[in-house]
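Session log. Operator J.P. requested a structure for one protein chain; no other inputs attached. Running the standard single-chain path with token output.
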Amino acid sequence: MSQSQIAAQLYTVREFTKTPEDIKETLKKVRDVGYEAVQLSALGPIETEELASACRDLGLTVAATHTGFDRIRDEMDDVVAEHKALGCDYVAIGGIPKDYRNPDGWSAFAKEATEVAKKLKGKGLVFGYHNHSFELERVGDRTGLEILYSESGPEFTAEIDTYWVQHGGGDPAAWIKRVTGRSFLVHFKDMTMRGSEQLMAEVGEGNLNWPSIIEACKSAGVVWYIVEQDTCQRDPFESLAISLKNLKKMGLQ
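Structure written below.
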């Protein structure tokens, strides 16, 4: 088990995870950078046992995964078995399926996701939702994200993405506090500016209020601080290293 609460989201290095050998080499690079845990996402085909073995050999904990909602719902036993083999308790989806992105869909998805989350909880897994910024578009007098969490049960948990909340005009720390008790994973991603253009940046290299965000995470019961950078302005492994260094300077381990 990792002694650190900081994990690297492998989506950051998705261009280097196409084949089993690529994946193993990338896991080693991430471990060499200093991460003790990873979130699995955007991997090419690899057998679960082979992946679990590679992580064990490197001393990497699988903190969480991103897995498609249809697969979680329709192939739940297989998904649970894979997570048990990986020693992973957290499964999240990367966004609401497109079929639900309509005025009535938010409420419908909140209800369906709750039922899926209850079933997963009974099998030992925690189900979470990762936001982008489109969830902060208003649907009547509420945002989509407000509907998701106000109309779902506590078994349906949050994976707040700091950059995307800020991108949508929200307050990342306030949103983390808002889902206290149902927020175990948070994506750490910074925002900087190039003229009037918003850019993703390494944690601590942009303009987000990290002391406030980290305080909110601690009070909300966050288990994993997951570093992700969808688009890097330099080598993504270097970006992961900078974020980790800065988070440790901020007092996280």
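Operator note: The mean pLDDT is 97.
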